[in-house]
TrEMBL record:
Domain of life: Bacteria
Entire-sequence positions represented here: 526 to 808 of 808
Organism whose genome encodes this protein: Caldimonas aquatica
Protein name per UniProt: EAL domain-containing protein
All copies of domain EAL, residue ranges: 24-277
């Protein structure tokens, strides 16, 4: 009887599971068709020095517009691509595109560090290092203008292998940042051992600033930790002046958020950074 009930219970949930599986398979299929068709693009969100107000870099963020589905947010398609393995192809495309864009900006005299998000499966590919090295070589981008955003989940996977990989990337001259810092459940020990340059304070801790006492405490603790380890700190998801002001006073180095700008196409990014006089002349 118990068994029967168990089966009945399973059957009860099954239709929903199938719908979800089906829609994930459809998304995956649409992505695989959409990439060669040019349905994906990268937008760039400015990273701003809190003290000087200068734009020092840009985070490349994937955008996907499908003919039938319309605009699909990364929060929807990235997990599907990670599950199916398509993220390896997609991530490689992002790497090539972002490095190419960074190299064009570099040739135009800009010193913007371009950050890309790297998924665990992509990072674990045996040829990941070669892919990064080759993207740099082909584009001519100085390695220190490329930053890889890694999540804590990557770092806890296989510590020895990860450490070797990070060291090889660091030797290339590429920079590494930990994305969504504080949301993972890894030990802090890796911060000491791994060649990481920057911590990105997750948006969820910026949200409640400056009034939420827990967020205030967490952000201060991250800044102290970063100082002790010689790491830079950037805050993401900054939407208000009060948040920006708090972060500046707390000793955070950079910020990123709608307060300054959302992610925009490369041309719009450049245009917003062109001094008015220069823009006048070129018009
Ligand atoms: P993330 O790397 O933590 O990127 C930051 C997200 O916060 C972006 O969402 C950005 O648009 C959003 N954001 C920035 N400023 C603000 C703000 O002031 N307020 C609010 N509410 N949101 C803000 P997006 O573009 O939807 O990307 C979501 C996530 O998808 C990213 O989180 C990243 O984990 C993933 N993702 C995006 N592009 C890529 C990619 O090329 N490769 C991989 N592997 N993952 C990507
Ligand atoms: Mg990121
Ligand atoms: Mg993030
Ligand atoms: Mg985040």
């Amino acid at each position: 009887r118990v068994k029967e009930r168990g089966r009945a219970g399973f059957r009860f949930y099954q239709p929903q599971m199938n719908v979800d599986l089906l829609s994930r398979m459809k998304l995956d299929h649409a992505m695989r068709q959409g990439l060669p068709r040019g349905d994906f693009s990268l937008h760039y969100q400015p990273q701003v020095d809190l003290r000087t107000g200068a734009v020092v870099g840009a985070e490349a963020l994937l955008r996907w517009r499908d003919e039938e589905l319309g605009q699909v947010p990364p929060g929807r398609f990235i997990p599907v691509a990670e599950e199916s393995g398509f993220i390896v192809t997609l991530g490689d495309w992002v790497l090539t595109q972002a490095v190419g864009q960074a190299a064009r900006w570099h040739r135009a005299g800009r010193r913007w560090v371009v950050s890309i998000n790297v998924s665990a499966l992509q990072f674990q590919q045996p040829d990941f290092l070669e892919r990064v090295a080759s993207a740099l070589a082909v584009s001519g981008l100085p390695a220190d203008l490329l930053e890889l955003e890694l999540t804590e989940s990557i770092l806890v996977h296989d510590v020895d292998e990860t450490l070797a990989r990070l060291k090889a990337l660091a030797k290339l001259g590429v920079r590494m940042a930990i994305d969504d810092f504080g949301t993972g459940y890894s030990s802090l020990g890796y911060l000491k051992r791994f060649p990481i340059r920057k911590l990105k304070i997750d948006r969820s801790f910026v949200n409640g600033l400056p009034s939420d006492e827990s967020d205030v405490g967490i952000v201060r603790a991250i800044v102290h930790l970063a100082r002790a380890l010689g790491l830079k700190v950037i805050a993401e998801g900054v939407e208000t002046q009060a948040q920006r002001q708090f972060l500046l006073e707390a000793g955070v180095d950079e910020f990123q958020g709608f307060l300054y700008s959302p992610a925009v196409p490369a041309e719009a990014f450049e245009a917003s950074q062109t001094p008015t006089a220069e823009r006048e002349v070129s018009r």
